[in-house]
Request: fold
Amino acid sequence: MPIDHSADTIVNGMLSKLEKTIGIKFKNKDLLNQALTHRSAARDPNVQSYERLEFLGDAVLELAVTEFLFENSDKPEGELTNWRSALVQGEHLAEIAREINLGEYINLSRGEDASGGRKKESTLADSLEALIGAMFLDRGFKKTKIFIDSFIICKLRTLIAQGKDKDAKSAFQEIAQEKMGTTPNYEVLNEEGPDHNKIFTVTAYIGEEKISEGTGPSKQKAEQMAAEQGLKAKGWNKK
Reply:
């Protein structure tokens, strides 16, 4: 029997490989496909990008992490908030996405692919949140929480040891004041999408120097991403 090299067969084989890696077998493959479709590849009006699933996944992830921390620690609210921030921050999510090779499965336009879209931290983090949103719709909260526990929450001790439980904006401000005698400021560079699903791009400055950019579904999250990138750009994220 000849081997079927059709596009559908290749895509299904790749998705099966991802399902094996994450330990979740999707009943609705369309949800998984949507979770892996970047907006640059969603030119057809019948094709949806991962942005709505990302919105959902962000909320599911935060609930799962909050529940875990509440049930497993008697630390005060402020410390639990910092731990949660470390677990859900873009840099950490992008690292988890790299561990499961999520970038190789993302459906991008040729231009976005050629510009290194599969390696972009924001794209990887957003795709992971979309994957979580798709898991939640397809398999429910209990199964999704197993994935979150196994791949994301399990890194908490390492993040704390690395000092990642410190709020990025606070850390960026503190170090900038110490080293440069000034406080970072943030400016909204771009805002796109409908009101219920906006994407903000924010630029971080120290004085008049542009340091970094960040994107997110709110100004606050975009500023946090810009601060994370600013710490990396200045080399201040190293211990």
Summary: The beta strands are 185-192, 199-206, 209-216. The longest strand covers residues 185-192. Residues 1-7 have pLDDT under 50 and may be disordered.
